[in-house]
């Protein structure tokens, strides 16, 4: 583990040299990264297929495409984001000018998960490089093939005193967290997020936690039910449900409960055929541990559709469960698989209360044409982000910040928010010397009434 300390020492020397301060240099690194990814496209897509069974289409749409969009967004706006920004002056400090400067944090640690192993590693890396930092990356050990490709690619593109990759499992995570950084960016479960935050607290290191939770869908009777069913099933089956913002459970108005389920069955068949276990567009569960956990959830309610499994390939057919037991693991833990509980409700207030009583979700999806209800959901429920009449697609817009709240995380990134996450906004007041107003200096006798007039 002396390798970690040596790497940190070399990074500290490199960062203190000022080499990362040049905006031109940072943009060169981003362009190099983009070119490198393009040259490795096939290897990356193959690795994603090996790890998660992703088709080339899904691998590009949910991983590479998003990364290309992030790179373009940063290259296009980096000059503006990094520029000195003037702010309104104050009569109290007249004559002066005030502005902010975006300063790199220093050395940052990025710990990424296995479910979107390329996107969720490289997206924060892009922002960290754009902000002028040195980066230690720790990809997941579960997504072995993708993690190896990431290390191979980045070692060819960057010197290890700028970007370095460390592989391993929990032991490596623990060893990395023993060291001090200027920021830690973690994507994963709330349980591990707590451990990361506990370690960071020992050195008062700021953290960004991109966690998960049970992201609800609410479907009202006035919604387009066939459309809602199709979009919900698409979102649930993307990456076989192994998505932190996947629809985790559905609350549906009772009068359209049966209609929604029937339309979901139609959508599943349309997308994956009558034998989903052999559909080329459906991926597989990451490992045996998670596969076994998911199978155990079948007993937590009434099986309404699906339920077929193939232990050899770790495939699970899209499965709908009705009347789920609310105290079961199905409704208490994030599912992270192609299993969807459906719960009927009678009133809008009942659905709203159901969500409000639980931990703040990373995402929320509301299918309804009732503008007042839309407004109420957005204003009265705390969640990271979401969609009206759609699912997951808010992640496709680089201008929208992505992050959780409460148990689903803290801090955000994507686009400018990512640059800000890995920067310190330094506030500067530049005093002028051509005029000296002596009101601020003692003695203060007789000045109280005057100073009161300068405050609103």
UniProtKB/TrEMBL annotation:
Show the active-site residues.
Answer: 210, 244
* One GO term describing the cellular component: cytoplasm
The record's SUPFAM superfamilies line, in alphabetical order, gives: ALDH-like
Any one of the GO BP annotations: aldehyde metabolic process
An MF annotation (GO) of this entry: aldehyde dehydrogenase (NAD+) activity
On the tree of life, the source organism's domain of life is Bacteria
Q: Which InterPro entries match?
A: Ald_DH/histidinol_DH (IPR016161), Ald_DH_C (IPR016163), Ald_DH_CS_GLU (IPR029510), Ald_DH_N (IPR016162), Aldehyde_DH_dom (IPR015590), Aldehyde_DH_NAD(P) (IPR012394)
Q: Which UniProt keywords apply?
A: NAD, Oxidoreductase
UniProt domain Aldehyde dehydrogenase: residue ranges: 7-428
Q: Family membership, please give it.
A: Belongs to the aldehyde dehydrogenase family.
The name of this protein is: Aldehyde dehydrogenase
Q: Which organism is it from?
A: Sphaerochaeta globosa (strain ATCC BAA-1886 / DSM 22777 / Buddy)
């Amino acid at each position: 583990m002396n390798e970690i300390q040596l790497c940190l020492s070399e990074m500290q020397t490199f960062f203190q040299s000022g080499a990362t301060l040049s905006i031109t240099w940072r943009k060169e690194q981003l362009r190099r990264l983009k070119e490198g990814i393009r040259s490795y496209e096939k290897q990356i897509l193959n690795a994603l297929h090996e790890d998660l069974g992703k088709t080339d289409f899904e691998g590009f749409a949910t991983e590479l495409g998003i990364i290309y969009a992030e790179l373009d967004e940063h290259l296009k706006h980096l000059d503006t984001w990094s520029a000195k920004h003037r702010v309104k002056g104050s009569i109290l400090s007249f004559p002066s000018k005030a502005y902010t400067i975006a300063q790199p944090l220093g050395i940052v640690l990025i710990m990424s998960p296995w479910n979107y192993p390329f996107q969720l590693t490289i997206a924060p890396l892009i922002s960290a490089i754009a902000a002028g930092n040195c980066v230690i990356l720790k990809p997941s050990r579960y997504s072995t093939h993708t993690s190896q490709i990431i290390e191979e690619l980045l070692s060819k593109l960057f010197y290890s005193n700028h970007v370095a990759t460390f592989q391993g499992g929990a032991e490596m995570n623990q060893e990395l967290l023993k060291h001090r950084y200027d920021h830690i960016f973690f994507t994963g479960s709330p349980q591990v997020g707590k451990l990361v935050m506990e370690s960071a607290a020992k050195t008062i290191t700021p953290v960004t936690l991109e966690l998960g939770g049970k992201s609800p869908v609410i479907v009202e009777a006035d919604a387009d039910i066939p459309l809602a069913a199709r979009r919900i099933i698409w979102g649930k089956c993307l990456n076989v449900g192994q998505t932190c913002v996947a629809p985790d459970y559905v609350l549906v108005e009772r009068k359209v409960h049966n209609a929604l389920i029937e339309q979901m069955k139609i959508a599943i068949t349309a997308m994956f055929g009558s034998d989903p276990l052999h559909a080329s567009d459906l991926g597989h569960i990451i490992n045996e541990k998670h596969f076994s956990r998911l199978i155990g959830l079948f007993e937590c309610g009434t099986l309404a559709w699906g339920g077929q499994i193939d232990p050899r390939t770790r495939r699970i057919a899209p499965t709908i469960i009705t009347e789920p037991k609310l105290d079961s693991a199905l409704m208490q833990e994030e599912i992270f698989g192609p299993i969807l509980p459906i719960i009927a409700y009678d009133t809008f207030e009942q659905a709203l209360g159901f969500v409000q009583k639980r931990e703040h979700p990373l995402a929320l999806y509301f299918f309804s044409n009732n503008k007042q209800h839309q407004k109420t959901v957005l204003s009265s429920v705390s969640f990271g982000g979401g969609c009206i009449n759609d699912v997951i697609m808010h992640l496709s817009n680089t201008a929208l910040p992505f992050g959780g709240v409460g148990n689903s995380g803290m801090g955000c990134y994507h686009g400018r928010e990512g640059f800000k996450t890995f920067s310190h906004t330094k506030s500067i007041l530049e005093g002028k010397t051509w005029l000296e107003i002596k009101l601020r200096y003692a003695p203060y006798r007789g000045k109280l009434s005057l100073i009161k007039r300068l405050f609103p």
